[in-house]
Amino acid sequence: MEKKLPFSQVVAIGLMLFAMFLGAGNVIFAPMVGQQAGTNTWIAMGGFLITGVGLVLLAIIALTRGGGTVEKLAGRVNPLFATIFSILLFLTLGPIYVIPRTTSVVYEIAINPLVESGANQRLYLFVFSTIFIVLTVILSWNTSKFVDRLGKIITPVFAILLLALIIKSIATPMGSPKAPLETYTTGVFLKGFTQGYYTMDVLAAFVFGGIFIKSIGSLGIRSEKEVSKLFIKSGMITIIGLIALQVSMAWIGASSVDAIGYKENGGEVLAQSAKFLFGQVGIYIIGTVIFLTGITTNVACLAAVSEYFERIVPAVSYKMWLIVFALLSLVITNFGLNTILTMASPILLLLYPIAIALIALIFANNLFNGRKSVYVGTIVGVGFVAILDALKDAKVAPEAINNAFSFIPLFEFGAGWIITGLIGFAVGLIVAKVKNDPVTLINMAGQEVEKT
Length: 452
What we know:
Largest sheet: 2 strands, antiparallel
Strand order of the largest sheet: 1-2
Radius of gyration: 22 Å
Number of helices: 19
Helix content: over 70%
Strand content: under 5%
Structural class: mainly alpha
Number of strands: 2
Shape: globular
């Protein structure tokens, strides 16, 4: 008989997921949207919440329906594509970008303000990052403890501290939203839509899937149907929490200009807002919040990427991968935050549209009978423009690219891949009919039920 979890355990799992997603990106990017969009904040946040929050639950469900792992989901396109996409995804969400970025952000916000001016910043960063990443390894050592460690202990602590900051900002507003800056005067919704990429939560949903399934497996949940149900129930708790968080962070940013002026990044916005609202104590509050969100993100990402590489290279154990990726993360962290952030945007502009397309395809699978040519056509259409957007953002012939492809609708707003993806979908349908591709249907439990 299938084991049924009590509601309290479902809530704990939902809080675990919330803790895993609640990283530096979640508390840094929305405040910047608020500051820059001003009176257009809520329009921009409409787009931001779609890519930064709404697609997270869909990604989780798509993962279960697509086979339970990102490589099986991407494998519907092509095995080689699945391998390349999965490796790039896991490395980006792990040692190449997210772990170094998170560690650096925690240092910049929680530690750097407490360091004496003129001190050896590189030495302090090295010492802090070593301690922080070692702690990450310790907490990642046994993934079956994730629910207890993240959902029941760490999450409530930082939630209370963050809630105090949010309530104070509402009860005693720092000011009122200003006129939007130039970047948020046109294409506001789509601007917010692309800014939601930077939370990385949709990509994280693919990465966290394996570690989540492993964690709930330790609770006695085995069947795909029950795993899918639990994903949805706990995922709703996660989504509600993320929406409340992002809207609150945007409000803090939008209302902060009178008090602290415009800042260069969301970390500064939060740190200065906390200091304005609570005085010097505010620095300790936001520092603690960032520290806790950072450690939960690092633990989730390091565990997930190690679990993935153990799966594809079983000769190397999970714990050995933990050590390897921790050391790589430590090296990259010490290049500094600016260098790390420079890498981020092009990678996200490449991976995010492809991830969204995969989610849409898995939900629409039975409408086109799961024919492979449709998967291939759509991903080729999306990937073509995603590569162009990534090249532009990396400053590789941006003017030439804009001049050559400006005829594509929404291209200037970074959303041209939607149009080319739809074209690829249509072409794929035609090719599938001509080739008479085999049918691959999926039932509600994520199982293939018919193949002819």
